[in-house]
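(Fold this chain)
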Amino acid sequence: MSIWVDLLNVATAVAQVILSLSLTTDIYDVHRRQNTGEMAALPLVAMAVNNHAWMLYGYLADNMFPIFATQAFSQCAALTYNIVYFRWSTPEKRKDLVKLYSRAFAVHCAFTIYTVIGVLGVTNQTKSDVGDCVGYAAIVINIWMYASPLGTIKHVIATKNSASIPINLSMMIFVSASLWLASGIVDDDFFVWGINAIGTMLSFIQIVVYNMYKPTPQGNEMKSADNTDVSVVIVGASPAAVVESPAYKLLSSPLTPVKK
């Protein structure tokens, strides 16, 4: 049985790492374009705060693997994403970003300070009690993260086009949350299996909605308003005609040198 548990923990860790790296291509595009474009900063900030909270919970719950290790890696990835994002953000966005990062940093500090003073016994709590409090707070942040795509789903249903849903990320969240759900059940950890049950359900809803309103690939064939096929023929331009000027004519080069 322990072998299967170890395999489950390894699979969960691998899925979490892949999920954390899933935004690498998007951030690379931001760096390549030197512009954040339409990419929102809030998910990146929420990712960093969420990973920090669960990293502390992993320490308090004496779950160094897979929780602490994977969340520490994910937090490093999230911090890197935010640094690149802020580097290429426009001056107009900087003011709002500073406010957002300040609030996120305050939450970071609150989690860290509470964990430190709790472990030192200042709050007259055991390490397990501190872990429970951090776990409840982490669940709130996680629900906020998982529920954030619901606005996108509303837009998809209204437009009947799911192109705005990042389906690869949604599928990866579904796989990762499912593995965390199984791991939490095996470890009898309510905080882990409870929040990931919600994450599994919400990501599954995103996948279903995506397939319900799946965008059709745009090919070379176009359709008219009544869905009849329309053939588009592109005619190459004919070479430009040479028009001689009535006042000037081209002279050919003499065959023999002109005597001076």
